[in-house]
Amino acid sequence: MSNRPNILVLGVGNILYTDEGIGVRAVEALQKAHAFSDNVSVMDGGTLGMRLMDAIMECDHLIVVDAVLAGDEPGAIYRLTGEDLRKSLGFNDSMHQTDLVDTLIFCELVGKRPEAVIVGMEPHDYQSLGTELSPVAGQRLPLLCDAVVAEVRRAGGDCTPASDGHPA
């Protein structure tokens, strides 16, 4: 048995609000395009908030994929840690039911808080009702997925492209 860390890739967001669902759309694309090592779990967290606590406490390294409001141009891709986590929509109590920072604090209170990083994208439109990503976010989705793959590898996991490669 190896000592590799348990890594959770968690896509969050509300897929009913255009680019707010970028995290969920990214994990869907990753699951289609890649096979992950056995120490990596990829999960659609949607807007579950506190209900994600069990899954979060079981991992050593948490990679959250989400829309991020950091003031750059739409489609910009970010890697955030520490206090910068609050730039992620899931970490500032937007459409999500519970602030993910609160969820991490509860995990810490019970003695199991993983190292957390956000891999995110600046949304073009996260307020319009619609299940499709904006053209900008859709075009940049493969780059967001590449950034998540790099983060998985940095954390001690691995993945290989599926036979059909990147999603269209």
Structural class: alpha/beta
Oligomer: single chain
Going by CATH, the homologous superfamily would be: HybD-like
Low-confidence stretches: 93-97
Number of helices: 4
Described by strand count, sense and barrel closure, the largest sheet is: 5 strands, mixed
CATH topology: Rossmann fold
Beta-strand percent range: 15-25%
End-to-end span in angstroms?
A: 37 Å
**Average pLDDT taken over every residue:** 87
* Global shape: globular
Radius of gyration, taken over Cα atoms and rounded to an integer in Å:
15 Å
Q: Can you tell me the number of structural domains?
A: 1
CATH architecture annotation: 3-Layer(aba) Sandwich
Give the C-level CATH assignment. Answer: Alpha Beta
Tell me the strand order in the biggest sheet: 3-1-4-6-5
The helix content, as a percent range, equals: 25-40%
Total beta-strand segments:
7
- N-to-C SSE series? EHEEHEEHEHE
Keywords: Aspartyl protease, Hydrolase, Metal-binding, Nickel, Protease
Pfam families: HycI
Organism: Nitratidesulfovibrio oxamicus
Family: Belongs to the peptidase A31 family.
Fold and architecture overview:
This is HyaD/HybD family hydrogenase maturation endopeptidase. Keywords: Aspartyl protease, Hydrolase, Metal-binding, Nickel, Protease. This protein has helices spanning 22-33, 53-57, 100-109, 135-155, and strands at 7-12, 34-36, 40-46, 61-67, 77-80, 115-121, 159-161. The chain is globular. The protein contains four helices and seven strands; from the N terminus they run E-H-E-E-H-E-E-H-E-H-E. The model is unreliable at 93-97 (pLDDT under 50). It has 168 residues and is of the alpha/beta class. The protein has a single domain, classed as 3-Layer(aba) Sandwich (Rossmann fold), CATH 3.40.50.1450.
